[in-house]
Amino acid sequence: MLQILYAFTVVQQTTGIYFDLPEGEVEEYGVVECGEILKAASQREHILSAGINFDVRIAHAYMRSLKEAVMKGIWNGLCPEWFEVLNGEEAALSTDDVELLEIHAEESCKLDSYFVMRFSNGTTRNVKLLEQLVFKSFYANKKIFEIAKPPSCALLDIILAKGGPEAITESFYNAMRNQQQSGGQLNETLVRRTKVQWCLPSLKQSEDLIKEGVSLYLKGDKNMKAHRGNFFSSSRAKQYDVSKVVDRIDEQNGHCPFLAKH
Asked: E strands of 15-69, at which residues?
């Protein structure tokens, strides 16, 4: 949705709305990707049973409906809740009796969802796009739903449902990649280490685990021999509580922070 809004960086003049991008490029934006999604979605059982026509050849029509909903949500003032006003300005964005003249991406924040809005009363607002509220509007805002139309909303639903698990999987495998050691290791060991990193908070926040681990390391038990006690020092040690990496990890709560003791 953020990418769609970037494609719609526009200025409103007396004769209409003008895009920064050529009109043809705006029309084609996202159509190819939409067609690829339609190929897979059209075969889903619940789509077939609902009688929704996900023909790839009309991908442009579905994208146009989504774009129109985004446009009217902004320019018709249907969804001021999409934006959070920044820099200590008004607590909420309100377009009552005020015409929006211009919206453009903040040049210094091209990778973030920050925009500048200029209104007919001379005011300028620095705002942040709240993407979760934008998506929510397609489910909860009747006017937006009617503009986008049910098939386009169903398409958006499929995209959101597919993107969530994919992000979780990528994050989990990044955790697994961090646990790999040179020389190889048993896959069972790698899986266990990954689960520990994924679920547990920083070990520094878990005193009982540290005490048990240190005791096991130094004294050993019936299954593991005791290790030597080693001490490492660095000229930069005084810059951090332990080290730069350890201090950074200490800032993170992990995926199951309730297991930590604070």
From this structure: 16-19
